[in-house]
What we know:
CATH class of the largest domain: Alpha Beta
Shape: globular
Structural class: alpha/beta
Oligomer: single chain
Amino acid sequence: MIKQIYGVYDCLSAKLALDAGADYFYLGGFSTAGSLLGVPDVGILTCTDLLYVAKNVKKILRDKYLIVDGDTGFGGDENIKSFISDLIDLNINAVTLEDQKMPKKCGHMPVEHKIVSIEEHSGRIKTAKNVINQRNSSLDIIARTDIRNYGTVDDVIKRASAYIKAGADIIFLEAIKDEREFIKIRHALPNISLLANIPESTNKTQLISSGELEKIGIDYILHPLSAMLSSIKAMQAAFNNLKTTGAAKTNEICSLDEYFKIIELDKYI
């Protein structure tokens, strides 16, 4: 059965996803940069920023599977080694590493993305894998390729194969256009775990359901922005109501009793 991964960006969103029955979670740079700093995902969020949020979110999720967005590894070999070691210390379950140049940019932004060579990104993966092996850790490496923004599906397949050989456990498929492309990749890589990134409100990837992807044989589906984009709309409506009417619509907001239950107030009093 395909595994659904829920995108979260802070402790409260993690609690809500947990309450909804989620088992797999993704702390993305896009939503964390927006939530924590109010900036776009263009390499401004630092490793320190991300680890601070990851530490607190993991406390909420405990033994649930948490993936942390590692961007490009936050620097050279020594930076990658330090970052991976920190993730292991926090008991994070998986990290994504992408094949862009620093500073990276979200793959769904209408901007230029600079892609490194297969050899350079394979080197990043090998560096991360060495730390994982030295620490006897079970941290999974999810290798992401952004090559589809500028190349073909065959280029995606070539890079995915190389990244698995370098030590990646799962391939993160970014900006894959439609169902036919997913089918071609699955057929070309029959024994490799594949993660499909399906963000809402993008014109780069067709909105495909988990059921459809499961039929193709995709192993994971990521919904990275569902919570953040939904919460933005809700907050905009609340603030607009306050501005225009001087009061919130009580039938559209969470009650205090509901909130106290979500944050488990009874455990603290």
